[in-house]
Each structure stands twice: as structure tokens, then as C-alpha cells.
Design goal:
The protein has about 500 residues and is of the alpha/beta class. It contains 15 helices and twelve strands. The N and C termini lie far apart (about 70 Å). It binds pyridoxal-5'-phosphate. Pyridoxal-5'-phosphate binds next to helix 6.
Length: about 500
């Protein structure tokens, strides 16, 4: 029974089974010709549910053949050029090599005594990211499971700082004061801001929504006004969340102006760069993040615009000392007396993956510029897509892209909005069912729109043209069906 344990005795089995795993993926990907098969939910569910988990198969070969059937055959492939739906990237090979090491060695980055060099590699990468942001040596942070957790941690620290800042009555318990805390974020900010406010016990009204301009960027004057109104109402501004790359529109809030407003009013500035973080390494577009260095905290999702496998994210603070708000000591783990650097002192997690090694091997083989060139390529692609949409009589686009998303809809002249609201979700469903492409949908001012998210440097303008042709032809078919005269019997 012990032959399955990863150890020196079983190294040949390890080599053999790992190779089988890699071969299964490689052989399969070589045959993939589209982002998805369009398989129905019922079909996939029953195939998975039919498996008897109490009767193991004879060997890895059989198990991998079964995985092909229940998973690979109908997987959604982010590396396919016509996968254009969500913020999922194709991944770089060095990071996949790192995944093997991360899982096999299985370091846990909570304490030095469980990870040693792993902890130091993460610390170097946190420092590297902080320097790219423009923070000085006081900058510090930690890798997290994703932007959602990064935003939560940033706001947890901001809550601690606001409580200590003096606006709050020191005799008043945090739970009381927290009911008066307010977070400011644009209407296009990520829902994890709302979720964090809820988790942090701030109540359901804690997020004040700030309007955006025509390019979907936070209006800094409206922010100033909202801060004044909040204070006048006896409430306490706790943090401003500026989004550097909104999930739907890829727009970047005016970071310099927001930093001025935050500095004047003494409010914590968090930049949610989960999406736009890749610009930190962009050879041509780093300037789009100007002002990010004035933030108190920053979220960066490496598993979006650094082409890393899920999970890989970080939250970085301008002053690492602020991380004390998440520090707890356990005698068995990280006692106060410990002289070793223990990352658990800075993290919401305890046991934690060594995701940092993926970015490390990426930087050590490809280099940061190569990643940045990928980012530039997808932003260029979105620009080309915008030009196609702008010149198309049947299609409307909300705004020119800053990053790599396009929100658009099929609406030829004379088609009422209510009809467009029916047709556009239908287009999306039909395309998904066909398996030839995957696109997303969203709502703008309550109306149904479609969305292309471009994160694949291998996608070409011809791919976009083909997908838009598909949108148009399906759109016209659906319109014809809607307007077709009743059949006469
Ligand atoms: C994706 C995203 C998040 C959430 O990140 P996860 O890694 O999915 O948890 C937060 N903010 C923005 C702007 C995002 O685009």
C-alpha cells in the first residue's frame, strides 16, 4: 500500500505516473480545436455522477482515461484563441513546471520551519512587486488565493487603521464604530468589495457607490462630494477603492486624482489592480498605472495578467507595519519569540500553497518584459476589436478599451432596446452551444450586452472578426425568428 507515497523508494512510480499525467494532457490538447464542446449540464453531471467512488480502478492509465471522459473532453480551454469570456488567461509553461515542484515538495508557507527557502522566495517576489508598484523598502505583503482575498485583507487592514485613527471614539467597541465606517468604490468596482464589507461586519450599506464618467472611470469630484456628505452625516470614511482595470470595461479610475482626494481627507487608498496589475511589467503601457505608488494597498492577480495558473495573487501594502492587523500568535506555530520570518504573521490563511514559485520560474526563464509584451499584445488586440465594432452598423460598443475588454451588443438600426435585450443573451447561448467560441454577457444600465475579454496573446484580429461575424449572423437569425409572421395553417 505504501507504493503510492511520494518518497525516494517510489521515485520510479512518481516519474512514470507524472509522465502519464503530462502525456494525457499533451495528447489531448494536441487534438483540441475549439474553446469548448458546448456539452449540456445534464450530460456532464450524469457522466460524473455515474462513477462509483468506492470502487477504484486498476491503475493510473485507466483513471486518466476516465478523467478524459468526465473532464478533459468537455473542458473549457482558456488557451484557445476564441475563448473570449472571462478574465482567464492561457498559462505559461514555466509556471506549469513550477506547479509540479510546488505540489510535490508541498511546502506550506505559513512558517519558515515548514518552507525555508520557499518563504524567502515569496518574500523576494513580494518585494519585487512592491518595487514595481513604486513602494520603498517599507513595502510588504503576502501571496493570497486571489483578488477576492487580497481585497478582503486590504480592507481588513484599512478597518484596523481607521479604528485607530482617532475618528473613532476609543471607548466605543469596534463593532459599534464599524457600523459607521464607509467604503467608497465606483459603480463598476468588483463585487468582492461589497462582500468584504459584509464579512468585516460593516453592514449592508457600507459601500458608497461613486458614479463613473463616459469611459466608466470613477468621477473624483463625486468622490470628494461623497466623502464630505459622509462626514457631515456623522459617518467615518474608512477606505477608497480605486479600480485599476474594472472587470467589465477594463477602465482605470484616475489614480492620481483619487490619491489627492485620499491624502487631503486622510482616507486609506486601496487600488484593486487584480486585472490591470499586468501593466506593472508592460514595456509600453506602465504609465496607465501612474499614481498607484501613492496607494496604501494594492491587489495584483498574477493569475490574470501575469499568465499564471490559478491560484496566484498578492496584496501589497505601502507600509508593511500595517500588516499587524492580521498578526496572531500561536505557541505551537509562530510564537512571539520566534526569530524566523513567518509569513503566517501577514496572511489570512494558515496552511498556504507556495504559489510564488510559479512567478519565480516565469521571471527566471521568460523575464518580466516578455510577460509585459503579452499584456501589450492583448491590449492592442482590444483596440483592433474596438475599431471593428465602431465601424459595424449592426453592432454597438460602450466605450473604447483601456485594457482588453469590449462590451458591445447586436442592435441594427431601428431595433428597439427591448428586442436587443432578448436577442443578445440568445446570441451568447447559441455561440456557447455551438462550441466555436465562448463570449460573456453583462448588464449595462439594466440592459443586456455582450462582452469579449481578451487575455490570449495568440488570439488574432481575424479571430475577433470571425466571432463578430458569428454574432451578427446569429443575431439576424434570431431577429428574423422574432419578427417572422405567424405561420398560417
Ligand atoms: C477578478 C477580479 C477580482 C477578484 O479576483 P479573484 O482572483 O477572482 O478572486 C477582484 N477585482 C477585480 C477588478 C477583478 O477583475
Amino acid at each position: 500500500m505504501r507504493q503510492h507515497l511520494f518518497n525516494a523508494d517510489n521515485i520510479e512510480r512518481y516519474r512514470d505516473e507524472m509522465t502519464r499525467g503530462v502525456t494525457a494532457v499533451a495528447d489531448h490538447v494536441a487534438t483540441v480545436t475549439g474553446p469548448w464542446t458546448g456539452a449540456g449540464v445534464a450530460e456532464v453531471v450524469s457522466r460524473v455522477d455515474d462513477i462509483d467512488l468506492d470502487r477504484p480502478l486498476a491503475d493510473m492509465g485507466q483513471a486518466l482515461a476516465e478523467v478524459k471522459d468526465v473532464y478533459l473532453d468537455d473542458a473549457v480551454w482558456f488557451h484557445e484563441p476564441r475563448y473570449l469570456a472571462h478574465l482567464n488567461c492561457p498559462v505559461v509553461i514555466p509556471a506549469l513546471v513550477a506547479e509540479v515542484l510546488v505540489s510535490s515538495v508541498n511546502s506550506s508557507l505559513d512558517t519558515w520551519d515548514q518552507s525555508a527557502g520557499g518563504t524567502q522566495i515569496e518574500r523576494r517576489l513580494v518585494g519585487w512587486t512592491a518595487a514595481r508598484i513604486g513602494f520603498d523598502a517599507a513595502g510588504d505583503g503576502v501571496f493570497t488565493s486571489g483578488g477576492t482575498q487580497s481585497n478582503l485583507q486590504a480592507l481588513l487592514v484599512a478597518r484596523g487603521q481607521a479604528y485607530l485613527a482617532g475618528d473613532a471614539d476609543p471607548a466605543e467597541p469596534l463593532a459599534h464604530t464599524a457600523a459607521r465606517f464607509r467604503i467608497f468604490a465606483s459603480r463598476d468596482s468588483h463585487f468582492s468589495v461589497q462582500k468584504s464589507a459584509n464579512i468585516l461586519g460593516l453592514g449592508m450599506d457600507a459601500v458608497v457607490t461613486i458614479p463613473t464618467d463616459g469611459r466608466r472611470r470613477m468621477d473624483p469630484w463625486a468622490l470628494e462630494q461623497a466623502l464630505r456628505d459622509t462626514r457631515a452625516a456623522g459617518l467615518i470614511p474608512m477606505a477608497v477603492v480605486a479600480t485599476a482595470g474594472t472587470t467589465d470595461f477594463g477602465s482605470i479610475d484616475p489614480l492620481e486624482r483619487i490619491a489627492d482626494v485620499c491624502a487631503e481627507s486622510g482616507v486609506w487608498m486601496h487600488v484593486d489592480a487584480a486585472y490591470g496589475g499586468g501593466l506593472l511589467v508592460s514595456p509600453r503601457r506602465r504609465h496607465l498605472l501612474a499614481g498607484i505608488e501613492r496607494a496604501d494597498s494594492v491587489t495584483v492577480d498574477f493569475h490574470k495578467t501575469f499568465f499564471q495558473p490559478v491560484s496566484s495573487s498578492a496584496v501589497i501594502f505601502r507600509d508593511g507595519a500595517d500588516l499587524r492587523h492580521v498578526t496572531y500568535h500561536a505557541d505551537y506555530l509562530n510564537p512571539r519569540s520566534s526569530a524566523q520570518p513567518n509569513q503566517v504573521d501577514k496572511s489570512l490563511q494558515t496552511t498556504r500553497r507556495f504559489d510564488a514559485l510559479k512567478l519565480w520560474l516565469t521571471l527566471r526563464t521568460m523575464g518580466a518584459d516578455a510577460i509585459g509584451e503579452y499584456v501589450d499584445a492583448v491590449v492592442d488586440l482590444a483596440q483592433a476589436g474596438y475599431e471593428l465594432l465602431r465601424d459595424d452598423a449592426d453592432l454597438e460598443v460602450v466605450t473604447a478599451p483601456t485594457l482588453s475588454t469590449l462590451v458591445f451588443r447586436f442592435r441594427p438600426d431601428g431595433v428597439p432596446e427591448s428586442v436587443a435585450d432578448e436577442v443578445n443573451p440568445g446570441i451568447r447561448r447559441t455561440i456557447a452551444g455551438s462550441g466555436s467560441a465562448v463570449i460573456a454577457g453583462t448588464k449595462v444600465e439594466g440592459r443586456s450586452w455582450l462582452k469579449l475579454t481578451m487575455l490570449n496573446p495568440a488570439t488574432t484580429t481575424d479571430d475577433l472578426r470571425a466571432v463578430l461575424d458569428l454574432v451578427r449572423s446569429i443575431g439576424h437569425e434570431l431577429l428574423d425568428d422574432l419578427y417572422a409572421p405567424e405561420e398560417v395553417h
